[in-house]
Amino acid sequence: MKTFLKYFLAAFLAIFVFCLIAFFFFMGMAGAAMSKATPRITKNTVLQIDLTNNYEEQPAKNFESLMKAEGFDAQPGLYDVVRLIKKAKEDANISGIYLLANNNVNGYATSDEIRTALEDFKTSKKFVMAYGEMMSQSAYRIANVSDKIFVSPKGFFDWTGYSVNLMFFKGALDKLEIKPQIFYAGKFKSATEPFRTTEMTEPNRVQTSEWMNELYSDFLLKTSAQRKVDTATLHQLANTGAIQTPQDAVAHKLIDAARYDDEVKAEIKKLIKLGPDEKINFVSIEKYSLAHQNLGGSKGDNIALIYASGDIVDGKGGEGMIGSEEYVELLRKARLDKSIKAIVLRVNSGGGSALASENIWREMNLAKKEKPVMVSFGDVAASGGYYISCAADSIFASKNSITGSIGVFGIIPDMSAFFKNKLGVTFDGVKTGPLANAGSVDHPMNEQEQKMIRTQIENIYADFKQRVADGRKKDTAYVETIAQGRVWTGLKGKEIGIVDAFGGLEDAIKSAAAKAKLKDYKVVEYPKQQTLIERFLGINKNEEAIADKVKSELGVEYYKVYKQLQQIKQMTNSAQARLPFEFLIK
After folding, report:
1. Omega before 180 cis (within 30°)?
2. Which residues participate in catalysis according to the annotation?
3. What is 39-159+243-291's CATH number?
4. According to the model, what pLDDT value does residue 477 have?
5. In what order do the strands lie in the sheet containing 257-258?
6. pTM for the structure as a whole
7. 454: buried, middle or exposed (CB in 10 Å: 19+, 13-18, 0-12)?
8. What is the tens place of the pLDDT at every residue in 154-167?
9. Which residues of the chain are in CATH 3.90.226.10 domains?
10. What is the mean pLDDT of residues 459-467?
């Protein structure tokens, strides 16, 4: 017993000392990072925004940021970026904004909000300048608002138009002898197409062409307004491949000049009246955020801002998910909290579980009876993302938000042939009745089983349409004409009545404040994020660390494809109100 106690105490002491050393090491690292990251906002400071950064809905807090010594909130969220640009507009020490515009990994609505903030910044008469060595169309979507745009003389400027490519898995499933057994409501509900066809169906091709061309038209219109080139000419330049070099882009007035980095910096020095040998004080928006930590206001009543981003799933969910259990609780707390006078739900989701969407809708509907409830759409708020939104008092969206997709589907794979012919596995058993094992993947569904699933899908679809009809004050017959799983842009969404107003998150918050008759207010953001210390001590979930690592290795664009493949497993768990896989627009 004495020996056991001796070894136990020695082991306990070793663990305690290790934790103590690790704690002080971490705090030392954090202190050094914070010290190094403290921004110097002096006269003639230029705010720098790198469009290759992915500005998600909430600030990113991860170890990679800390190791870069950018600070605890190294990557501000989108709403922070918008508010920081507004701060810079009023900041006498900020002379202008410099955009690093090589690529832009942010979505269309996100890009719209940043671009709108930059347009507002320009009313201060301060400059906005953009530079890229290889400028993509996605980067130009934001950069074209700039006073001057430069590209490296030996670089590249993309002007080729938009395209959408979807992945189809039917051929792979056929080879594996897996039959997906698909049920869906709505002829445009294309989320199941990758499993039942090898190419786009005609209804999907029609709807995709329509919304993609609306996005492209918006891009051309905004470019035309800034660069004083008519849209027909811009379209022709893309169709003929006329822009091969940065010099071509200069000749056709898409950019101002082909310049090297040092030449662009020299131009900035002239603008802010610095000598040739003086150094420009560039401050990244990440570091600028450290000087403005309290962006939500500090006085007045509270407005709850709840971010709902990711797949909608049953239960608590996890990183990058909208778990029904967590969001029902968040909405309920906001509804019952007397200090909260209004609620704004920011939705960026292509949907997911129909049941989870229904549960969140229920709390939204209850909250609306108690206080103003507004919804702001991000890049995507469709299918289940629209389901959870439709009860709101008002819905705000960018013209380029993707919404609608009011439809439902379910997939129950028959894997019996795969198990038998590919793996040599067979199944046998006993049951109390013919439907006892309905929905199992070990056999093809019979007619009665199929009828049960179809009835469930149709009932959920009917409920979905009724929720939309009640929330948007339309009759169900009209909703059916705009439903059918059809995808719409925010532009068309307002026209058909599923969106109330164009605007970003700040517009939704102002509307909530006005409806609640608030003059002064604080924005309190949910879900609350863990601190880096909490993450370091292992309080964060393991899957979050894995997701961060995968995203870091693959990059944002390929990580989206990885997420699409993960969604396949989720689709077989329950009836789904979900968009077709995330589409990548070139």
Report:
1. no
2. 189, 383
3. 3.90.226.10
4. 97
5. 257-258, 148-157, 127-135, 94-100, 45-50, 282-284
6. 0.86
7. middle
8. 999 999 999 998 89
9. 39-159+243-291, 301-585
10. 96
